[in-house]
Amino acid sequence: MTRTLLMDSYLLSDAETVVARARTGDPAALEALFRAYEVPVYNLARRICRTTEDAEDVLQETFLEVCRSIKRYREEGSLWGWVRTIAASKALMRLRRNKYRDTDELHDEVVGQRREDTHLRMDLEAALERLSQTSRAVVWLHDVEGYTHEEIAGMMGKTASFSKSQLARAHARLRRWLGEEVAVP
Amino acid sequence: MTHLSMEALVSLRGRGREPGDSGAREHLQGCPACQAELERLHQRVARLKALPPLRPARDRWPGIAAEVRAERRQRRNRSAGLVGLAAAASVALAVGLAPLVAPDPSPDPGRIEQVMARSRALESALDRYDPESRVLDGRTAGIAQELEDRIARVDRELEVTELREEQEPDAELLRLWRERVGLLDALVDVHVTRASNVGL
Q1: B155 to chain A, minimum CA–CA distance in Å?
Q2: Is A177 on the interface with B (CB under 8 A)?
Q3: Residue B153, CB-side half-sphere exposure with 13 Å CA sphere
Q4: Could you give the dihedral angle defined by the CA atoms of residues A106, A108, A112 and A118, in that order, rounded to the nearest 10 degrees?
Q5: Distance from B68 to chain A by nearest Cα, in Å?
Q6: Which of B13, B38, B42, B51 to mutate to probe the A interface, most A CBs <10 Å?
């Protein structure tokens, strides 16, 4: 059983019934879908978007799309996989639309100069937050959500190589910012 | 000694096999430093997966539900209006009422508002008939389909005209709104006639 199918049974044990009712427009069933996936969708959106406001908007846009398109959900994959792809697309769309200034270089410089100072060592949350939006999105989608580089490339409108190099660069930064670098012979 | 790059380490962790993986694996077997680096990478990813989920600060469902309801209402009204329009226009066409719209090269600004208000009033009247719940005969339904396309075209033209950055799109807007009102007017007649004829 895939991870997303496991998520389905964990988040919404009677998914089949709820989906059937949601397809008829039953408001209670639509709300049940929202309640089941609200947190993972928001979490995914928040990990990709820069602000909580953007993440909340993505949450809303995702479930509006779910309500509009539930009739087209074919039950070929997991329900969570379907909802998650909508959420990821919406979040990446917002990322492209907002075009925040990429601050990687600045962070590299600041953290790089002082990395011997243990007080500046970041925890994982802070380090993740400091990555550029694109790098963070790739790290999250690949390492946590389990998307392949090809799938990420498709969603981002980039190449798989782009996704791979973003991931490697992001891990190099995380390692440095987390103070995990060790002197090697 | 050259150690594995982060790209190579990330690739080794992946599910697929990359072209340089076999060489990298070979190096890895004999290099404790790279083994430790790969282990740190695994641990970092495990810690990422274990981060507690972030939760929205407020409940967004009421807003979503309201928007879904509004969209449904809009679709219902539109559908009711279009089906009614079709039947009305079929009669209008049969008795030779077309053309319903006369050109007006120099509309005064208040005219569009008046025509729009008339359109709204007619739509409300149609809504009260609740055409969606009524059965149409085959001929009327066929014409309805054709007219739905016509109305959709008028609506699209209205949208485009409203967005146009021309200085004076009023004549075109007035023409389109009149076209709409003409069809709606005929539709109300049809409904009244049909209702009184067949006792609906």
Answers
A1: 22
A2: no
A3: 7
A4: 90
A5: 7
A6: B51
Instruction: Answer yes or no: pTM beyond 0.80.
Output: no
Model confidence band, residue B200 (pLDDT cutoffs 50, 70, 90): very low
Chain B residues 67-86 within an 8 A CB cutoff of chain A: 67-68, 71-72
What is the DSSP secondary-structure string of A57-125? HHHHHHHHHHHHHGGG--SSS-HHHHHHHHHHHHHHHHHHHH-PPP-HHHHHHHHHHTTT-GGGPPPHH
Tokens, residue A5: 């199918």
- Per DSSP, the three-state class of A155 is helix
Lookup: tokens for B3: 């150690």
CA distances to A142, B170, B174, B177, B180 from B111, rounded to whole Å, are 59, 9, 7, 10, 14
State yes or no: ipTM above 0.95: no
pLDDT tens digits for range B167-189: 556 777 788 888 877 777 766 66
At residue B43's C-alpha, the angle toward residues B38 and B45, to 5°, is: 95
Residues 6+ apart with CB under 8 A from B69: none
What local confidence, expressed as pLDDT, does residue B142 receive? Answer: 55
Give the list of residues 6+ apart from residue B21 with CB closer than 8 angstroms, or none: B11, B12
**With an 8 Å Cβ cutoff, is B60 touching chain A?**
yes
To the nearest whole percent, how much of chain B has pLDDT over 90? 14
Q: Taking each helix axis from N to C terminus, what angle separates B32-49 and B6-13, rounded to the nearest 10 degrees?
A: 60
**Mean pLDDT taken over chain B:** 72
Closest by CA position to A147, among listed A157, A156, A138: A138
Could you give the CA distance from residue A74 to residue A96 in angstroms, rounded to a whole number? 29
Q: List domains and CATH numbers for chain A.
A: 3-98 (1.10.1740.10), 104-177 (1.10.10.10)
